[in-house]
Amino acid sequence: MLAWLKERWELILGFLVGLVGILALTRGNTNKKVLGAKGDLLESTTDTLEGEHQNFVDAVAQANDSHDSNVDSILTNRDNALEELDQSTKDKIAEMSDKSNVDLAAEIQRIVEQNSKVES
Q1: 107, burial (CB in 10 Å: exposed 0-12, middle 13-18, buried 19+)
Q2: Is there a domain that residue 29 lies in?
Q3: How many CA atoms lie within 13 Å of 30's alpha carbon, on the beta-carbon side?
Q4: 112 and 104 in contact (C-beta within 8 Å)?
């Protein structure tokens, strides 16, 4: 048997090298599976992050729209109040122009005192 091994050592060595190569390829397939699973997980995570990013963008846009409508409402209310105040002021001036200087001074004094009470 020893003589047969000495004659066929190249064949036996080739067989063993081939066997080791096949085992290496089989183990490499496991790495492919792990890398494939990693790629799938990365893709899933990326999809989730993109969805969350879109939700965030939508929420910010909605908040901006709400803010803009609130600002418009406040400005409209302010403009209406200023128009009412302007009309009230014009009415007071017309009313005061018919009074004498003494009556006018008394009316101004009353308005100043009324405004100082409101501010306090």
Answers
A1: middle
A2: yes
A3: 5
A4: no
State the angle between helix axes of 9-97 and 101-119 in degrees (0 to 180), rounded to the nearest 10: 150
Whether the predicted model's global pTM rises above the 0.85 cut: no
| Alpha-carbon gap, residue 26 to 16, rounded angstroms | 15
The burial of 10, by beta-carbon neighbours within 10 Å (0-12 exposed, 13-18 middle, 19 or more buried), is given as exposed
Range of the domain at 32: 11-119
pLDDT tens per residue, range 38-80 = 888 899 899 899 989 999 999 999 988 888 888 888 888 888 8
Is residue 67 one of the residues assigned to a domain? yes
Reduced to 3 states, what is the DSSP secondary structure of residue 94?
A: helix
Residues ≥6 apart with Cβ < 8 Å to 5? 12
- If one counts the domains in the chain, the total is 1
How do residues 8-20 score in pLDDT, each as one tens digit?
888 888 889 999 8
Sign of CA dihedral 87, 88, 89, 94: positive
**Is 2 contained in some domain?**
no
